[in-house]
Amino acid sequence: MFRKLAALVLFGFIAAPAAHAEQARLYMAPVEGIFSFTPGQLDLAGQSSVGPVLRAGPADAVRLEAFLDANQANTLLIVRGNRVLREVSEDEDLYDDNGVIPLVESGVARDEMDALQAPDRIDIWAVSTSIDLSNQIEAVAEGENMRGAGAVMLKLTPEGRDMVAALTTANAGHQIATLLERNILSSPVVQGTVDSAGLAVSFSSPEDPARETWVLETLRAMAQGPTQQAWPAPEQ
Questions:
Q1: pLDDT more than 90, % of the chain
Q2: Which of 22, 70, 178, 209 has its CA 20 to 30 A from that of 60?
Q3: Which of 187, 197, 195, 204 is nearest to 30 (CA)?
Q4: 119 or 141: whose pLDDT is higher?
Q5: What is the pTM of this model?
C-alpha cells in the first residue's frame, strides 16, 4: 500500500521520461490530493550512478506520511511541472528497500541528466480510479475554451461522452486531471457534470510550440485508429 517505514531523509533522482509506446494513452483521473515539498528544501545533494540526487528534510518526510494516510487513492503520480516522472500503483511501494523514494522507474532514458538543475518543485498527486479515453476519440481540432484560451477540441464517441459525464458527476467540485501519457494537459476543478460530445482540453501551463504540436498530432493519430503510432515526445 504505497508506503513502508522509511528514513526521515529521503533521496531520489530525476530523469527524462521514457519514449512513448506505439499506442498513446489519454485518460482522466480525479485528484484526491496533492503533496508539495516545502519550497526551497529540495536541492541537489550530489551525483549517483543514476544521476542527480535530491534531498528532502525530515519535516517533509513526516508530512508525506500523514498525506499518504489521509488519501484513499489507488495511484500516486510523482510530478515535476507538467510531467509525470513516475506512477506508483496501489500494489507497489512508494519507498524502495533502502527507505528512499525513486522519482523515476528504473530503465527510463536519462539523456537530459547533465542539463538538469535543482528542481524548484516536486509534487506527489494522489489520484483515484481513472477513465481511459484512448479509443473514444472521433476527431481532434484546435480551438478555444469558454475563457477564450487556446485548447485542444476533442469529439468523443457516445461511450466516451457517457464516461466523462459519469466521472464529472461523481467528482463535481473536485480537481480532475487529463493526461496524455506522462504529460498533464490540464487539471481544472470541475464544477458539475460535463455531458457533451465535444470536450475542450486546455493546457495547464505556458507551452512551447513543439509540445503543443506533439499533443495535437498524437491525439489526431489516436482518432484515426489504434494502429496509428504516437509521435516521439519532445524533450523538456
A1: 31
A2: 178
A3: 187
A4: 141
A5: 0.79
